[in-house]
Amino acid sequence: MVSSLMRYLPKTGSDICAFTFLLFSIHSIGIFELFIVLPSIYHSQSHATPTGGFSLYYFHVFMGFYIYFNVMLNLYLIITTNTSIKGRMLPSIIRPGWRFCAVCESNSPPRSFHCFTCKTCILKRDHHCTFTGNCIGLYNHRYYVSLVFYMCLACAYSCVLNFDFVYHLFGTVSVKSILTIMFPMISWIFYSGDSMTNVQVFMTSLCLVGFFLTGGLFVYHIVNSINGQIVHERTYNIKTYNLGWKENLALLLGKRWRIAWLCSLIKSPVPSDGLQYITREQYESLKTM
Ligand SMILES: [Zn+2]
Ligand SMILES: [Zn+2]
Question: Palmitoyltransferase DHHC domain: which residues (predicted)?
């Protein structure tokens, strides 16, 4: 079990560092919100509104675990899903749109590209994700977009909770308090808070930076997917596989794309075997028939 999981884990130095940082961020934010922020907010409020504060506290705890579960599930599914050409029946004769990969010494289907870190060709390869140490392709693209979405949601949720917490910490929203959150490294030079306050300020900053980073990533990848493009096709403005936003989303999130984003345990197979894709031209002619 451990050895089989080991082969999916990051191999290069930069991938290991990024993956460790990701795990550290997920768990430190989770622990910070659950054990420091929430008790500090609801400890002071529960005296005024015992029932309302109590149920709201458990609602936040439930939401926290729901988001954490989705983040870890998607991370697990990204690294364990085989989205490469390994194990696929590939033709020995090269077909139109295919190319020969000299490294894999096999014919490679359209939209697949070789990854020199993963040492294989990846089906509908979007990019190599350093933070998970794996390539993002046809079969794990859904989990990647879901991971980014739930991390962005976690950071946004934390920022809202933190606002209450920071207000309580500083007693007011001032230029000093905003600067401390935005630039903790600079503020620590001038700010004479205790070490616990510094940790709290650092965690609040991490949530804020995480929100902008994951938010930007999510928008970038969802726009590409709605346009039916992988990163390579966006770079070279290739629109060959743009079948309209509904079909494009189905290729990303699977046939049950309307609910698939709620949880990655929902079965939602992608309508492709990874070896051929319907082009816009073929799709248009099928519609007019
Ligand atoms: Zn290859
Ligand atoms: Zn890769």
Answer: 98-234
